[in-house]
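Human:
If only I could read backbone structure tokens as easily as an amino acid sequence. I am handing you a single protein, as its sequence and its fold in token form. I hope you can help me see how the letters and the tokens relate. Thank you; the sequence and its tokens follow:
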Amino acid sequence: MIENQQLAVHSKFPAMGTTIFTVMSRLAAECGAVNLSQGFPDFQAEPVLFDAVHRHMCAGRNQYPPMAGVPELRQAIVDKVAALYGTRFDVESEVTVTAGATQAIFTAIAAFVRPGDEVIVFEPVYDCYVPAIETVGGTAVYAQLKFPDYAPDWTQVAQLITPRTRMIIVNSPHNPTGSLLTAADLEQLAALVRGTDIVILSDEVYEHIVFDGAAHLSLSGHAELAGRSIVVSSFGKTYHITGWKIGYVVGPAVLMAEFRKVHQFNVFTVHGPSQLAIAEYMQDASRHLGLAAFYQEKRDFFRRLLEKTPFTLLPCRGTYFQLASYAGLSALPDRAFAEWMAREVGVAVIPVSVFYADGRDDRVVRFCFAKKEETLLAAAERLDKAFPRPA
């Protein structure tokens, strides 16, 4: 260990801790708990995707790819978005491949938010948004998604908009709640920002995981909102390769030019052979079009398992997360309950209060069901043992 030289650091972010996903995954490993906390699959992608990466490596595609992404992948993204949402972005100036969605979100915030600017976010808010806003000197302003259906209150949002509002961040399908923005929501958002210079950052990483016949309504497909939006998606979520950390953004050239000014200096580019492999893999549209049915089967299976426990299930319209209330089980605060679950029950979950600035606690936890059937069964067995049903 390096000797302490009594260096005064004067932390820029004294209140910023370690993300809850790292905390709970570490606790799950320490306790031998079934990890349904952090959002990643415990199953592999198709071998053909790995074979393609290896083939491109052996073919010598190992040097820096273009800053915005390899042309093959950018074209595949443009084609996919056009097919799904009816908007054809320019392959040269309106799409950028990123080192995952988190980098894309940080870069977009850094590109547009100045010190003193305000950014409206919706609580419960995914935990990377606010630290990024604060890192660049902005201020997060909190709108509330209404419990228990987690719908936005646009009257409240209208009251929060000021001359300092620079950006609004939306997330649909929504993590952690699984709620969706509707066509009416998009129309109300468009009306609120009409005539302003507000930029919309739309986190749509779960765009292909929407259930019960619903359609994902991308801001890139809305005639008015598309012109002021940076839309983020994730190959990690779509193709079960979260560890590859590859995503992308689409948006109008005037916004993308600003995005790339930051992107070129905080990442510059993304692993080349993987980009080429994904571009090939995308040619079979069934691989993303079939994702909703794939995960709906997992959702329904997991909900049937949880219905045998005293947890109260909340609606799950998208994503691969299931919220559940434990209000009838325990009076513990949700973080303490989640830690108890990992240590004593052997199942790791995420406490939803961590997604609120004031720690609002509705005694709700988040389960991830992007797991093999045997993993979900193992978790259910532990839950059944911990919470036996009355005879």
Summary: The first strand starts at residue 34 and ends at 35.
